[in-house]
Amino acid sequence: MINVPKLETLFLWGNKLSGSIPSCISNASMLKNLDLSNNFLSSLIPDTLGNLRHLEWFQAFENNFTTEFVTHEWSFLSSLANCRNLRRIDVSINPLKGLLPTYIGNLSTSLQYFYADDCELKGNIPMEIGNLSGMLHLSLWNNELSGSIPASIGGLRNLQALDLHSNKLGGPISESICGLERLDTLSLWSNQLHGPIPTCLGDMTSLRYLHLGSNKLSSAIPSTLLNLQDILELDLSSNYLNNSQPLDVGHLRSLVRLNLSRNLLTGDISSSTGGLLTLLSLNLSANKFHGHIPESFGGLISLEFLDLSHNNLSGIIPKSLEKLS
């Protein structure tokens, strides 16, 4: 029996604990921080966690927690709706399976961090997720989520990071995402998204990391993306994007990684690319670029990786590239 009525913090992460979470943990009624991560715990996450009315922080990632064999119901989320001060939930890397329930929208609006990565989730992202108005980070990567990205995500006005990569999400990228004015990271790579890149993404001046690679996006790369002058990483690789005019990326002065590989881009490579003094990695391979390699590439003094393979480039290799050695 757990009988520690004044206990506020219980950290047991990074051990070799096994078995289940005892339901009597609710006896620690003043508990605020509970971290059971990186153990060998299994069975169900108990509904009695909902009795911890002061709980603010619950982490249980990297265990072997499951859900009911038949329903795979995430009932523990329903119980955690009783914890009105809850700020963080992390149940990543557990074989929970099942669907993300609609009652996720009943969680406290104080919730700021929700991580359910690599949990074997299926089905749609419920529109009720848009009720979590206090959310800062939402991460559901490496699951089997399908359907479209719900427009209700645009209601998470404080969101700073949205990571949905490595799922089976389809449909177009919802323009409601453009309303997330504080978004720093948008990671949607390795899905089945199609249609154009929304031009309004160029209005999201807080973006530092935009990863849309390995989808089925088509049409031209919108010139509005060149408004993201503080962006650090831009990955649009492995899509069906096309541009007949040189993409003038010279204004992206903070750019560290640019990957436009495996698209249908044509025309000349813009000489303005050589002005990106902070660039570490540049991948323009497997497109249809033609003309010469710009002499200006010799100005990429920080460059560590350059791939221009499988294009239609001609002429001689510029001597300016010797500056990169």
Automatic annotation (TrEMBL):
Record-linked Pfam families: LRR_14 (PF23598), LRR_8 (PF13855)
Where is it predominantly found?
A: membrane
Q: What is this protein called?
A: EF-TU receptor
Alphabetical UniProt keywords:
Leucine-rich repeat, Membrane, Receptor, Repeat, Transmembrane, Transmembrane helix
InterPro entries per record: Leu-rich_rpt, Leu-rich_rpt_typical-subtyp, LRR_dom_sf, LRR_R13L4/SHOC2-like, Plant_receptor-like_S/T_kinase
Gene3D superfamilies in the record: Ribonuclease Inhibitor
Task: Please give, as recorded in its UniProt entry, the membrane topology of this protein.
Answer: Single-pass membrane protein
Keyword tRNA processing listed: no
What's a GO cellular component annotated to this UniProt protein?
membrane
What PANTHER family does the annotation carry? Answer: LRR RECEPTOR-LIKE SERINE_THREONINE-PROTEIN KINASE FLS2, OS04G0122200 PROTEIN
Upper classification of the organism = Eukaryota, Viridiplantae, Streptophyta, Embryophyta, Tracheophyta
Residue ranges of domain Disease resistance R13L4/SHOC-2-like LRR in the record? 75-237
Where does this polypeptide localize? Membrane
